[in-house]
Write a structure and sequence with these properties.
Blueprint (H helix, E strand, L loop, with lengths): L3 H10 L2 H4 L4 H5 L9 E5 L7 H7 L4 E6 L2 H13 L5 E5 L12 E7 L8 H11 E12 L18 H10 L3 E7 L4 E7 L1
Parallel strand pairs: 1-2, 1-4, 2-3, 4-5
Antiparallel strand pairs: 5-7, 6-7
């Protein structure tokens, strides 16, 4: 049975203000994704990005990966409602994802690095999962001063240039690194 805290977190992630800050199609349009790929949404939360990814990957597989079982239960409900049979859910530890090396074509880290205790370690773990020429997409909150109206506290936000450098230090080539919305930035890179 889900705890009150996990239910509150799911409800917070489903808050309309949060989804209004980011249209999943704006990310999908910028990544080198193909409909037959295997892609992981790491830190999937309740699946509001997993579902659009799975729809695009109609001949592939979308892995919803999260540390909380309650989030993945919501992904399963959403996937069933959308009649999607290509979603696989995986419970992970923060920096240990239960997938084989070089098993994925793409990895999405959306609004998860700001929650990670070691964001660069999570990026390294994501890189481990990618095949040669695989791609990674990082979508995170832009730095702000003062109190955040939407998104994480200013102190929890990760700096775009630091994340880009962490990806490039792992041998990736940046395809794009720019502001995605008024609140978020995106980095897309290929192995």
């Amino acid at each position: 049975m889900p705890t009150k805290t996990s239910v509150d977190k799911v409800e917070a992630l489903l808050h309309p203000k949060l989804e209004e800050t980011y249209d999943p199609q704006s990310m999908i349009a910028l990544v080198p994704i193909h409909n037959d790929q295997k892609v992981a949404d790491i830190g999937s939360g309740p699946g509001w990005l997993t579902i659009p990814l799975a729809k695009y990957l109609y001949a592939g597989t979308c892995y919803a990966v999260d540390v909380q079982e309650a989030m993945l239960k919501h992904v399963k409900i959403q996937g069933k409602a959308a009649r999607l049979g290509n979603i696989k859910t995986l419970v992970s530890k923060e920096n240990q994802i239960p997938l084989d090396d070089a098993s994925l074509d793409g990895v999405v880290l959306s609004s998860v690095l700001n929650e990670a205790s070691r964001p660069k370690t999570l990026i390294k773990e994501a890189a481990r999962l990618l095949k040669k020429a695989g791609w990674i997409s990082i979508v995170e909150w832009l730095p702000i001063e003062g109190k955040a109206v939407v998104g994480p506290a200013a102190s929890n936000r990760v700096v775009q240039q630091e994340m880009r450098e962490a990806v490039e230090a792992l041998g990736f080539t940046t395809l794009t690194s720019r502001q995605l919305t008024p609140h978020r930035y995106i980095i897309v890179a290929r192995k």
